[in-house]
Amino acid sequence: MTHRLDEEVRQRLPQAFAPGAGPGLLHLGATEIGRILPPAWAWWRDLAARYVTALCATPEGGEIGVVTPGSDGGRSRSQLLSLLLPVKRAAEHCAWLRKPVDDGGIDHPLRWTAAEAYRFLGDLAQPEAAGIVVRTPSAWRSGRPARPVVKASVGERAPSLLGRDALLDFKVEVSLEGELLGAAELSELLKRGDGFQLLRGRWVEVNRQAIDRLLQRFEGIAKAAADNGLPFAEAMRLLAGASPDAVGDPLDADWSELVAGPWLAETLQGLRQPEGLAQISRGADLKATLRPYQQAACAGCTCSANLGWALALDLVKLDIHAAQQN
Hints:
The chain is elongated and about 105 Å long.
């Protein structure tokens, strides 16, 4: 339904707005209350009426409808801080948070450097324990930024000899969420030190000591493998989670990844699920139709024979050990 201005209102409004928009809106909010107006006029009339109401409720010399922290306009500073009780609890355990709470800086948005933001990330458990809900970027996995990972893969290529005496290759690289980092990028990354660093347009977390230590351990194995090959039994120990060197310490799972290369992964998968292997010809002397599980058993036995039965047994033990660890 379309409303039109009646003649009386039509004559009043131009006169009210002649001095300017302010006097005109004041006229709408004070004089035209209760009149039926077109939607556009009614919206401005309602806005002006709210202003007039706030103006009438404001003491002379006061600011209309504005209450700032620290003022006496209804809520004192102590009352406002009482709403921030979880922040005050967290400040009891975090020295860096105590200062902005005491000096009032917490009342406003804070601009942090990368080092300050990283410090907050390191103390994240304290604010959360105090009842503060912390929201991190959705791209972060498990609430943490991406990390460069020292990745080692064993058995990328098929060895020249199968069985327990097989010698496998060992490859080391550093990657960020699956993307390989070049030597220059890695050198620059480690040179900047620990904390947040901007890499390839995103903030990443760096622990130089952890990365350096893993590189030294893995590169020692890679050099020995390049010279003499990595024994199959040693490769199985590494994949099972054993210490990769004489240090004896387990690998830091947050900064490292040790995986089977393409050839070894395919071989292990064939032993776990032999039904996926190529079908083996049963020969003309076998006058029978094998059931599916029998065909899978034939394929598994052939794969085990090719690897060597002792080695196949080692792989079965490895699977059992991995299942117990998980």
